[in-house]
Amino acid sequence: MQTRLQAGQGYGSMFNCVLTVYRNENVAGFFKGMSFPLASIAVYSSVVFGVFSNTQRLIGQHRYGDSNHAPALSDLAVASMVAGIVSVGIGGPVDLVKIRLQMQTQPFIEANINLKHRAVGFVEQIAYRGPVHCVSTILRQEGLAGVYRGAGAIILRDVPGYCLYFIPYTFLCGWITPEGCLSPSPYSVWMAGGIAGAISWGTATPMDVVKSRLQADGVYLNKYKGIVDCIAQSYQSEGFKVFFRGITVNVVRGFPMSAAMFLGYELSLKAIRGNQAETNP
């Protein structure tokens, strides 16, 4: 729904989007393009959380002489920005494939693509048969640069987005955890992670819209010349409200997704540290 609302045409609201997708594509339409993200989410999350943690430790070692020193706000900001930049390497191609597969059944309007003698409606020809065919087609037609289409918008989304992801989590987790506890409880981690995810995805929505439109561009046509052109065309045709399309979906999905990620991350760290303590008493 997020992709259809942000980059698609003809969806007035989230409810209307749900009805339209179900009416035209049945239940399978809600899971279109999800195989590639599901196959890569573990690697992506490991890289992002690993880069954030290791950057934080390096900063602590360099600034305080102790890798486990409590990080300052500036330390968290730097570590978050590094994680946001690195995330583009994996997240860019994954997002591109997901959006291309989801948008190839999107109805298009003749006036929007300047094509004559073409009926309005769903595109009859399927451009991509699956994730592998999608990647190979993009490489063949657009080269390696095509796989990273919208990378600039992803950086502009993820660098501040991860700052508003890890920083609120760190402070909320410390605030919720009772004094005297050496580590946060699973509930504290879950709640802090969920709130941080909702904040991050909610504030990242404007640039997420731009990113989705740039990546969807190219399935059947090339409409935008870049980030600035995408912003200008979107604003001229749909007004300022276009940059908040899908914000409800982003916030609603951001809470449980981020809560589960942070909880899994913290529990995994505890398990690893426990095993290391038993191995090296």
TrEMBL record:
Matching Pfam families: Mito_carr
Renumbered ranges of Solcar repeats: 1-58, 71-175, 184-271
Cross-referenced InterPro entries: MCP, MCP_dom_sf, MCP_transmembrane, Mitochondrial_Carrier
GO cellular component, one term: mitochondrial inner membrane
A GO term, aspect molecular function: transmembrane transporter activity
Transmembrane segments annotated in the record for this chain: 34-52, 73-94
Subcellular location: Mitochondrion membrane
Name of the featured protein: Solute carrier family 25 member 48
